[in-house]
Amino acid sequence: MENKRIRIGHLYPELLNLYGDTGNILTLKNRLLWRGIEAEVETIGKDSMIDFKNLDIVFLGGGSDREQLIVCHLLEQQKESLSEYVESGGVLVAVCGGYQLLGKTYPLDGQPVKGLGILDIETEVNDERLIGNVVICSGLLSKNELIVGFENHAGRTRLGSCEPFGKVLTGYGNNGEDDTCGAVYKNVLGTYLHGPLLPKNPALADYLLEKALLRKYGEAELLPLEDQAEKEAHQYAVKRFLKQS
Predict the structure, then answer these.
(1) What pTM did the predictor assign?
(2) Does residue 94 contact residue 21 with C-beta atoms inside 8 Å?
(3) How far apart are CA 13 and CA 122, in angstroms?
(4) β-pairing verdict for 146-159 and 121-137
(5) What is the pLDDT of residues 139-175, one digit of tens each?
(6) Active site residues per annotation
(7) Chain centroid, CA 194 distance in Å
(8) Which one of 57, 172, 186, 212 has the minimum C-beta count within 10 Å?
């Protein structure tokens, strides 16, 4: 039997790691290792070229406006290979600032800046920040399992042809108006939810791992894990956040 291995690319953590994004990487890695699947994390710095063909999951975190602009310029130089990765079904997770710069435009110093155009979204800025705990219902997961997170952003994101990541039950989501949260295109997931996201939502972590395994090996059976503590923490957060709304 072939030993399966998943390579995770953590893009520019020295620039984009405002909200404990390393926790997302550790969650993906450990949930592979606990199942006997090899996991390799490649930390990709600003002076490195990215071999997207050698990656199975790519993670892009959140950062300040200055760091966000630097990363956008870096990825613009590799946009063709990034687009090929996305169109071939590569898994890409982008949080907060990373989510914004994947769109057509995003705000910088109050002005729209051209983004990478990977996602059909546009983001404007508002003086009032959207801050707080969030619960969404997402069709990505079986039985529409609820997803929890925390948001802190001034951006107001509008979706074009992308599907939303989920429907907001409490919190603000993309813009505080249309009850959408995040965006999905192929195996790209963009979201404002951090805190970090995946340790709080192990079912979502497994969803991403399944997509990566299916793309690479044509099958994606994940053995069940002893997730009692994680499930109890998740359920507690759901009840608490919904009660606050």
Answers:
(1) 0.96
(2) no
(3) 24
(4) antiparallel
(5) 999 877 899 999 999 999 999 999 999 999 999 999 9
(6) 96, 194
(7) 9
(8) 186
Q: Give the CA radius of gyration of the chain.
A: 17
For residues 122-127, average pLDDT: 94
Residue 105's H or E segment, with its range, is strand 105-108
CA 36 to chain centre: 24
Q: Which residue's structure tokens are 């998943």? A: 6
- 245 pLDDT higher than 80: no
Neighbour tally for 21: CB within 10 Å: 26
Tell me how far apart the alpha carbons of residues 128 and 139 are, in angstroms, rounded to a whole number.
29
Distance CA 115, CA 79 (A): 11
Specify whether domain 5-244 bears CATH 3.40.50.880: yes
Instruction: Tell me how far CA of residue 219 lies from CA of 48, 139, 212, in angstroms.
Output: 31, 21, 10
The per-residue pLDDT for range 47-76, each reduced to its tens digit, is 999 999 999 999 999 888 889 899 999 999
In this structure, what token pair is assigned to residue 241? Answer: 């956040």
User: Which amino acid, residue 167?
Assistant: K
